[in-house]
Amino acid sequence: MDKPKNKNDDAPRVSSSRPPIILPPWLDKLSIQAAKFPWWVLIIAIGLAALFYSFATSNLYRRVLAFVTDNPQITTNRYARVGYDVKAADGSTKTVRGTIIAQDDNTVTVETTREVQDTILRQDIGKLTCAAPDASGNCPVGQPVSVERVSISGHLILEDLGKYQLVSDAGDTVNILKVSVADRPNPQPTESKKMETRTPPECKANPEGTCEIALQLIPGTDGNKFNELMLIDSTADAVVVQTIPPQVEVLNRSDILTQRDYEPEQCALNNLAGCNEGPFLTLGVTFGAFFLACLIGLTFGMMRISGNWVLNNIATVYVEVIRGVPLLVILLFFNFAFAPWFRDQFPGLAPTFSAWIIGIAVLIALYFMVRGRLQNLPLEELMQPVIVIAVITAIVIAIIAYFAANSTLNAVQRAIIGLAFGYGAFLAELFRAGIQSVGKGQMEAARSLGMSYVQAMRYVILPQAFRVVLPPLGNEFIAILKDTSLIAVIAVAELTQKARLFASATYQVFPSYITIGALYLCMTLFLSFLVRTVERRLSMNR
After folding, report:
1. What is the structure's pLDDT at 443?
2. What is the DSSP annotation of 389-440?
3. In angstroms, rounded to a whole number, what is the distance separating the alpha carbons of residues 345 and 524?
4. Which one of 275, 331, 378, 465 has the lowest number of neighbouring Cβ atoms within 10 Å?
5. Which string of b and e fits 321-331 if b means at least 16 CB within 10 Å?
6. According to the model, what pLDDT value does residue 11 have?
7. 172-192: per-residue pLDDT in tens?
8. Nearest to 181, CA basis, from 162, 200, 167
9. Residue-by-residue DSSP string for 453-486
10. What contacts 314, CB < 8 A, 6 or more positions away?
């Protein structure tokens, strides 16, 4: 039966879709370019530019940056803090402690007491006297003077019940005892009892120095009167006096009996040993942990693909267990459990470990020799695994002997071992996947050419696997760099620990962690760029 026809069926249909919007060619091209533009780069660049502008303009951010980066300099004459047992002129032995400020092949110059200078503005001086003024009545430079300070002004950065700490208008950090500040006569209930003027009124101390303060001091009290100090410099605006003179000893190297202490001091281009905190320590731990993790990962990765069920199961247990344990727990274990045991027990157990390793190596070598004889292998191919086993055994025995004599691990060594042990499990899987990505025909072709298994792995399989795993290895390196922040829990003075120390001392948490976040971001962005470049070149060469 036909469906009845609706009277509206013959009516013209109107399309519900709107006609397409046709953009001008220049606007269409601009929109395409805008869609392709990496806006994330622009956003990060703007954020970093704003932060580095803060470093350049904000005193607080400059202080944070100098503290967390170990305040590197171009040159320095403060090389290291040392302690020496030295033979004196009368034949006795004395101990000299201080800072090396100069050295050559024959002598070492040690500053046992560091010079301290104080700059006092003329407007803050009530009286300046000396024993022999010049014809104009001024005290000559290089002569002892007595200075009486009656006022001081600057930026208040810290205040407690007993003292003010301020950065004076001369640029020095000065501690002023409250008992040496004049009392205000008849103070109002809302006024301070001390003769002080704050700008803005009633502002509080803060490390950024936004609170300016002027103090009226009691003349002649301790800290306000300096007697018999050497005048270092004198200008129309200020005088510079030497509050603590330096004391220096020049030691002959032949008179130095023992060196008790040696700790590099100022980080500079001519004293790179002093660059051992902040980002320098972060990068050092990263490279050390990554190198050791690659050795561990390559070893256990090859054990994972081994046909020997013992080696395969040992590697599997290591990979599955370590990947299931948080890295922070591994670091705490190595720092607080393994390191004390290693220090106390390993020297006594080292001979036993060495004997077991030698015995196992001998059994493995005998196994390869017997199997080679049964297969009628030539002598060269028969001795190759034996030589490899002997070399590996010698290296392991040498490492055991070294750590038996040096069983005390410092915090940095513990951190490197902990990070390497944790990341070794992930790199083991990475290397396993890279080796298995190489076709089986490559190994068969290499063996058909007369190569041994070791030769085939060295010359054929591993070079191809390395090309596959190189980009992921770069990503793992970046991950280790970021995870070095975890070693702050064991008090290693890397970037995060330095920021924690600054924040706890100044209560400026936000600038501290923003600064190290920017430093981490700069390092990871640079490394990510390198990884992308390497990955691109490898893909072009295939």
Report:
1. 82
2. HHHHHHHHHHHHHHHHHS----HHHHHHHHHHHHHHHHHHHHHHHHHHTS-H
3. 40
4. 378
5. ebeeeebeebb
6. 52
7. 888 888 888 888 887 777 777
8. 162
9. HHHHIIIIIHHHHHHHHHHHHHHHHHHHHHHGGG
10. 303
Rounded-to-integer distance, Cα 298 and Cα 424, Å: 8
- One-letter amino acid at 161 equals L
| 459 contacts: CB under 8 Å, gap ≥ 6 | 446, 451
Strand segments (E) across 274-316:
none
What is the number of other CB atoms lying within 10 angstroms of the CB of residue 254?
9
Q: Is 221 left (phi over 0), alpha (psi -120 to 50) or beta?
A: beta
Tell me the backbone φ, ψ of residue 37, rounded to 5 degrees. -70, 135
The total number of residues written for the chain in this structure: 542
Which structure tokens are listed for 93? 């032995």
* Amino acid (1-letter code) at residue 59: N
3-state secondary structure of 432: helix
Beta bridge partners of 242: 117, 230
Rounded CA separation 121/169 (Å): 8
Report DSSP state, residue 122.
G
pLDDT in tens, 66-101: 899 988 889 998 899 999 999 888 888 989 999 999
Rounded CA separation 377/542 (Å) = 37
Q: Which of 192, 195, 170 is nearest to 181 (CA)?
A: 195
- pLDDT tens, position by position, 427-463: 999 998 888 888 888 888 888 887 877 778 888 888 8
At 155, which amino acid appears?
H
Which has the closest alpha carbon to 68: 476, 522, 528? 522
Tokens of 451: 């190569």
Residue 47, pLDDT score: 82
| End-to-end Cα spacing for the chain | 70
**Cβ atoms within 10 Å, residue 310:** 9
Tell me the C-alpha distance between 348 and 39, whole Å. Answer: 61
Per DSSP, the three-state class of 387 is helix
Q: Which of 239, 212, 243 is nearest to 121 (CA)?
A: 239
What kind and span of H or E run contains 248? strand 247-252
The tokens describing 247, both together, are: 């004391």
| pLDDT band with cut points at 50, 70 and 90 for residue 1 | very low
Q: Which residue has the tokens 């470093």?
A: 55
Angstrom distance (rounded) from CA 147 to CA 230? 11
pLDDT tens figures, 460-502: 888 888 888 888 888 899 999 999 999 999 988 899 999 999 8
- The answer on pLDDT for 18 being more than 90 is no
- Supply 373's token pair: 């004889």
Place of tokens 């104080």: 118
Mean pLDDT of the chain: 85
Report the C-alpha dihedral over residues 508, 514, 515, 516, rounded to 10 degrees. Answer: 110
Q: CB-based burial of residue 517 (10 Å sphere; 0-12 exposed, 13-18 middle, 19+ buried)?
A: middle
Name the pairing type of β-strands 247-252 and 107-113.
antiparallel
Residue 417 in tokens: 């071992």
**pTM recorded for the entire structure:** 0.76
Identify the three-state secondary structure at position 224.
coil
